[in-house]
C-alpha cells in the first residue's frame, strides 16, 4: 500500500465518524417529514374521491426515494469503514534510527511517484456526462488508494450519493410544504 492509500484509509473513517451524527439527524428529519406527508397523503386519498386525491401520497413516495437511497449508502459506508481505523499500516513515531539502503528507498519513492502520476492522469480523463469531475476524482482516489480492495469505500458511485444527499436535503422543506398543503386540503374537505 502506498502512503496515499494509507492516508485515505486513515482520513476517510475519521470523516465518516465525524459525519455520522449530522447524517443521522438529516435522515431522521427527512424521514419524519416524508412520513408525515405520506400519512396525510394516504388519509387524503382515502377521504377524497377521484384519481387526483392520491397525488400527495405519490409525491411523498417520490420524496422518499432519495432519502432511502442516502440511508442505504450511508449504512454501506459505515460498514465499509468500520474496521479501517483498526488496521493502521504506519505505526506511531519511533525514536529509533533505521538506516535504509538507497536502492530500496528509491524504488519505494518511485512507486509512490508512479502511483501519484497515475492518479493525476486518471483525474484528467472526464468520460462521464453526469458530474464528470466527481467521477474523475473518484477514479483518481481509487487509483491512489490502491484499488477497490484497499479502498472498499470508493466502490459505490459518489455521484449517486451526492444526488441522493441533495434530494434528501430538498425533501425536508418540500415535505413540510406538502404536509401543510395536504392538511389544508383535508380541513376543507
TrEMBL record:
The chain crosses the membrane at residues 25-47, 53-72, 162-187. It comes from the Bacteria. It comes from Georgenia halotolerans. Keywords: Membrane, Transmembrane, Transmembrane helix. This is Uncharacterized protein.
Amino acid at each position: 500500500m502506498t502512503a496515499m492509500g494509507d492516508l485515505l484509509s486513515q482520513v476517510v473513517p475519521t470523516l465518516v465518524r465525524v459525519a455520522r451524527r449530522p447524517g443521522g439527524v438529516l435522515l431522521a428529519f427527512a424521514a419524519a417529514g416524508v412520513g408525515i406527508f405520506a400519512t396525510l397523503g394516504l388519509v387524503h386519498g382515502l377521504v377524497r374521491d377521484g384519481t387526483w386525491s392520491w397525488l400527495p401520497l405519490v409525491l411523498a413516495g417520490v420524496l422518499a426515494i432519495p432519502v432511502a437511497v442516502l440511508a442505504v449508502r450511508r449504512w454501506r459506508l459505515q460498514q465499509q469503514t468500520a474496521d479501517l481505523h483498526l488496521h493502521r499500516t504506519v505505526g506511531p513515531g519511533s525514536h529509533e534510527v533505521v538506516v535504509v539502503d538507497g536502492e530500496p528507498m528509491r524504488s519505494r519513492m518511485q512507486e509512490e511517484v508512479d502511483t501519484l502520476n497515475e492518479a493525476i492522469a486518471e483525474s484528467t480523463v472526464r468520460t462521464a456526462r453526469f458530474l464528470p469531475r466527481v467521477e474523475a476524482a473518484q477514479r483518481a482516489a481509487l487509483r491512489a488508494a490502491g484499488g477497490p480492495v484497499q479502498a472498499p469505500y470508493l466502490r459505490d458511485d459518489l455521484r449517486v450519493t451526492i444526488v441522493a444527499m441533495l434530494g434528501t436535503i430538498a425533501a425536508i422543506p418540500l415535505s413540510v410544504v406538502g404536509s401543510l398543503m395536504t392538511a389544508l386540503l383535508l380541513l376543507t374537505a
